[in-house]
Amino acid sequence: MSRLRIVDATLRDGSHAVSHTFSPDNVRRVCAQLDQAGIYAIEVGHGDGLAGSSIQYGRSQHSDLELVTAAAEVIEHAYLAVLLLPGIGTKEELASAHDAGATMVRVATHCTEADIAQQHIGLGREMGMKTVTFLMMAHMIPPEKLAEQAKLMESYGAEAVYVTDSAGALTMDGAQARVAALRDALDAQTEVGIHAHNNLGLAVANTVVAIEAGATFADGCLTGLGAGAGNCQTEVLVAVLDRLGYETGINLWALEDVAEETVRPLQKHPQVIDRIGLTLGYAGVYSSFLLHARRASERFGVDARDILVELGRRGVVGGQEDMIIDAAVELAGRKQSATA
Predict the structure, then answer these.
(1) pLDDT tens for each residue of 315-331
(2) What DSSP line would sit under 149-179, residue for residue?
(3) CATH 3.40.50.140 is held by the domain 5-266
(4) pLDDT single digits (tens) 216-239
């Protein structure tokens, strides 16, 4: 129980929900309070990781290095984490983030593409960073296949491998089975993590059953801020774990204070499970597609839910945001033909 490592991703995954507008001042304030509250690691940067700022994924108001530098100025105890998606971020950008003060890297790939991460994981280990990995869209393949990909990441040097429910599509049985499969397949010293989105309202529950199945890393975002309908809510998770008898080393009151007084005022709108967010989980679509689907819906006069269901039918994954427009155009054409 003492090995539970709670990672807060408000300043990275939460960036999706505020259109990547976190400022260095925002970062300094949130990081200082999280650090004092006893969080294990704090993740900072664009929602899609290093070099994510682009037309494709959304422009940031401030660069990753500005935000990492700001975080490094105030963090005294926690790991300072950055996310890297091979094909978006590069080894050079990871080295620059390390020089700016990042002490943990989380290398993320689609659940079937672990082999593209070898050099990035290796660099993280070479630089002495805490190096963990994400298998994203974990609902798309069965537990045994996910475990095979996790073994690859372990062989490259990953110190922990996450079951990452990017679509918020996993139910409790699915989350537990995947974590259990990784825990059985990986060496004892390699830890397992869980990153849950709340599109089906199961983020806290999925995280708890994952911990019961052997996960020792668990992610959250303050106020549940995040892509789609949001992430596992950090302060709620810590309260639940405390009630269950798990030791997190986190001051719950301090966590509630930073959530309520610092993060909530930064939100553009309340983080709720609305009809579009729910459809993301129902259709099994990448959570960061929410804002893109909403814009396409308004532009082409098509229900965003229909767009998301079509994307789910096509098996679209992160990095294929251009397909949102394709699907919207096709659905608009069908609608026009039906009307005619």
Answers:
(1) 988 778 889 999 999 99
(2) HHHHHHHHT-SEEEEEETTS---HHHHHHHH
(3) no
(4) 999 999 999 998 899 999 999 999
